[in-house]
Amino acid sequence: MNSPISHNTPPDTSWVKIVRQYNHPDLLKSWGQLSLNLLFYITSWILMIVSLKYSYWITLGLSIPSAGMLVRLFIIYHDCSHGSYFRSEKVSNIVGLFIGILTFTPYFHWSKNHEIHHDTAGNLDKRGIGDVWTMTVAEYQASTRWQKIVYRFYRNPVTMFCVGAPFVFIIGNRFTKKGMGVKSRLSVYLTNAGLLVVFGLLSLVIGVKAVVMIQLPVISFAGIFGFWLFYVQHQFNPTYWARSENWEYRKVALEGSSYYKLPRILQYFSGNIGFHHIHHLSPMIPNYNLARCHRENDLFRNIRPLTVRQSFRTLALRLFDEKTAELVSIRSMRRRQIGNW
Questions:
Q1: Rounded CA gap, 276 and 254, in Å?
Q2: Which of 18-27, 35-44, 67-76 has the lowest mean pLDDT?
Q3: What CA–CA distance (Å, rounded) separates 274 from 261?
Q4: Using an 8 Å Cβ cutoff, are 108 and 180 in contact?
Q5: What gap in Å lies between CA 170 and CA 181, rounded to an integer?
Q6: Using CB atoms within 10 A as the burial measure, which of 45, 47, 325, 338 is most buried?
Q7: Which residue has better confidence, 335 or 122?
Q8: Is this structure's pTM higher than 0.85?
C-alpha cells in the first residue's frame, strides 16, 4: 500500500500539513458508501433482468447507470489499494479482492501497477507502467514508419476507448504476464475463479444468454468511462512533465494532474476522482474527503478546472513537446516543422 506521502516527496511543507488533515477514513462513511453502492448495483441488475422480458433497449438504457455504479465501486476498490478507505489492511484487501471480481480487475496486480503510476506520473524517464502510452515529439520523429502507425492506432480515440478499454477488462485482465509477482498472479487466479463462480451461478438462474446481454454492455460502458477518466487526469494542457532530475512531486500533483470539473451526477458516479490533483498530492485521502479538501483550502483556489467541453479537445493531443513543455497534436507538430524550414 502507498504511504501517505510518496518517498519522492520533499521535506515537510505547509501543503503536507494541509492534506494530512483529510487522510483518515471515516468507517461509518466508508461502510455506508460501500453498502449503498452495492445495493444500487444489485438493484440495477435486478431491473435489467426484469427488463429483458420487455425490451432489450430498456436493458441497454439501464446498463448506463449500472455502469456508473460499477465505476463508483472501482473508486472504492482504488481507495482500498491505497489503504485510504479502511484502517485495516486486511479488510482493505478483502473488499478490494471482492470488488475486483465485480470489476473484472485483479486486485494485487492492479494495485502494484497503480502504486508505480503514483511514483512515476509525469516523469518522462519512467513511462510505461500504469499510464497512457505517450511519446515525446523527438521520439515520434525518430520512430520508424511502422512504429508511427502502431502509435497512432493506439492513440486513436476509437481504439483507446471503444476497443481497448473493454478488451483490457474483459480479456486482458484474465491472463498473467511475464514478470508478475506471486501476489499479482494469485489475484489474477482468484479474480478468474470468482468470475466463474458468480457468473456460473447467475447463468444457472437466468441463463448464459441473459448474463451476457446484461454484463457485456455494463462492463464495456464502465470500462470506457473509467478509462476516459484516467486519460483526462494526465492528458491536458497546460500540464507538467519532466525528466527525473527536474521531477517534483508537488508539481506533478498540482500541475500535472487535472481538476476535472464534472456535473454533479458524473461527479457522483466517478467518486470525486475529478479532484485528481488532490488525490496525487495525498493518495491516503478517501474519495469522500477529496471535494472537501479542495473546497476548504486556499492552496487550491488557483487550480484551473478542466471542463467537460475542454476535456474533449484533449483527444487531439498525442505527443509531449519538451521544448515548449506542452502536449501537442501530430498535425500541429508537422505545422511547426514546416514553419521552421
A1: 9
A2: 18-27
A3: 6
A4: no
A5: 22
A6: 45
A7: 122
A8: yes
Q: Residue 337: what residue type?
A: Q
Residue 73, all three cell numbers: 465501486
* Res. 339: pLDDT tops 60: no
The residue type found at 219 is: I
Residue 322 dihedral angles phi and psi, to the nearest 5°: -70, -25
C-alpha cell of residue 186:
494469485
The residue ranges of DSSP E strands in the chain, in sequence order, are 135-136, 259-260, 305-306, 319-321, 326-328
* Burial of residue 289 (number of CB atoms within 10 Å: 0-12, 13-18, 19+): buried
Could you give the CA distance from residue 21 to residue 15 in angstroms, rounded to a whole number?
A: 10
The H-or-E segment that residue 253 falls in is helix 249-256
C-alpha cell at 57: 433497449
Domain regions of the chain by residue span:
14-340
Residue 266 near residue 148 (C-beta atoms within 8 A): no
Q: What's the rounded Cα separation, in Å, for the pair 182 and 237?
A: 39
Average pLDDT over residues 265-285: 96
Q: Is 281 exposed, middle or buried (0-12, 13-18, 19+ CB in 10 A)?
A: buried
261-287: average pLDDT: 96
Kindly state the average pLDDT of the residues 228-244.
Answer: 95
Please name the residues in contact with 308: beta carbons below 8 A apart, sequence gap of 6 or more: 261, 262, 263, 266
The residues pairing with 326 across neighbouring beta strands, listed in sequence order, are: 321
Residue with cell 486486485: 107
For β-strands 135-136 and 319-321, DSSP reports them as: parallel
Q: What contacts 43, CB < 8 A, 6 or more positions away?
A: none
Q: Tell me the three state secondary structure of residue 259.
A: strand
d(CA 277, CA 340): 36
